[in-house]
Amino acid sequence: MSKEEKKVNRRDFLFTASYTIGAVGVGAVIWPMIDQMNPDKAQQALATTEVDISSIEPGKSITVLWRGKPIFIKKRTSEEIAEARAVKLDDLPDPQRDEDRVKDGKDEWLVMLGVCTHLGCVPLKDKGDFNGWFCPCHGSHYDVSGRIRKGPAPTNMEIPKFEFVDSNTIKIG
Amino acid sequence: MSEHEYVPKSKAGKWFNDRLPLLTLGAHLTDYPTPKNLNYWWTFGGILTFCLITQIVTGIVLAMHYVAHADLAFASVEHIMRDVNYGWLIRYIHSNGASMFFLAVYIHIFRSLFYGSYKSPREVIWIIGLMIYLLMMAAAFMGYVLPWGQMSFWGATVITNLFSAIPLVGDSITTWLWGAYSVDNPTLNRFFSLHYLIPFLILGLVVLHIWALHVPGNNNPVGIDIKKPSKDTVPFHPYITIKDAFALLVFMIVFAGFVFFTPNVLGHSDNYIPANPLVTPAHIVPEWYLLPFYAILRSVPDKLGGVILMFGAIFILFVLPWLDTSKVRSAVFRPIYRQFYWIFVLDVLMLGYVGAMPAEGIYLVLARVGTIYYFAHFIIVMPVVGLLEKTDPVPMSISEPVLTGGAEPSLARKVNDKV
Description:
The structure holds two protein chains of two kinds. Chain A is an alpha+beta fold. In chain A, 27% of the residues lie in helices and 27% in strands. Chain A has a four-stranded antiparallel sheet, with no helix packed on it. Chain A has a three-stranded antiparallel sheet with strand order 1-10-9, with no helix packed on it. A three-stranded antiparallel sheet of chain A has the order 2-3-4, with no helix packed on it. Chain B is mainly alpha-helical. Helices cover 62% and strands 1% of the residues of chain B. At the A-B interface, loops of A face helix 7, helix 8 and helix 12 of B.
């Protein structure tokens, strides 16, 4: 009886060990098959872009491509900055101060990902109910700071990592 | 599969069949006892098989000329249209074929809903069918991306961004799907690979769908169980094959009408503009067959909520066999449910219409009403009507109403008998 039991136990151990090793092996093979779909080295290499901003007039904006996505670079007028800062945080679905969306001392430069946070369309400039951007796909309205005000988008338009290389050049990424 | 044992006539046939019983399978399919009262709504299974074969054959040919690269895809599609011999014909058959495929599958699904074909014992057939439908939508979506026009690019952007609504891991999943930081060349490349794969997965599921069908046999317009074979059945060949062939010919006339006279009417003209990641078209619409679900997505003012409801609209169909509490299968004998059925059909058509319109004003209101009714039909109407409804008498057999000139009450059995 005890001998039989011992045999069963040894077999149990073999089963468990085999399944475990098998699972690790299957996992080790599956992970590369999954990870190969993530952005490759060539895509990651496009991670920074330098942009000359010297020719942008106040109140105007340009759009540049970074990592396949549009970046809005807008030189805001002092009225536009004042308008953005006059908004009460309680009126914002995703409360964020305008000061936190620009670099200190460079308040006129709004640099943001020109991608609607709803489903990724490119919003149109100088449209919508809040003097900012309007997404034609599903009707999201953004204000002059790129903050969501009305519509299905859940968050403000994203501010990418960027820095001023000198007063006429910014580096995105 | 209870027919007598099949024995091939020739010696060679017997030799082969003993080793691989393909001839037995052929005999089963030929003799397969089919209800004799199947109407033309039952011909769409054969039509759908034709659609699948057409898409596979034309697709393999198109892949010989198409280039799956962001810089070359658009030009290669134009090359197919202008330079390749009969390329215009093959591409128009393939692009319109997708619409014809969905037209047929919607008729097939609504036939099943009317006659209760999803009900016991055919739940597994229904679920496999829904899996085919899901794969069809995936294949159609990815196929629409391949020409790399404006609608391709922005349709792909919107649909892949649906996954970014998933909490915590949404953005990682979206980047993983893209293989880049936006819809880009890696996205196009993998969509082409998967677009080529999915039809063969569908083909495999179609085999299982038919296999599962041949276990209980066909449902029928009266919706009762029948003895097989009996005076209520006819052999599949030649009775059903000839009827299916006739319906297929009529279907092919409609198909050819689109291909030869209005090949672009079901598409969107913006897709003849090359993809531009900086400009979103003013009005993004999916292909017509996805519009009801698009309307549901847009009817919710919350990103995650819209995505959940849109997928929920499809996945609720999987539990339909258990939401329907009626003992009677066919809506022919369900006077109350029959009316709700047609309201539901109108509701889906209305959702399709508002899905093509801008999401504002009256269209948004209609989309919300339509969405609420869509779910109410499954969650409230189906269980409640099934319990409360007084159904009409169901005939004993298919032959009965035919031979007696109508389902007379004296001959009809009560609903609470085993149906």
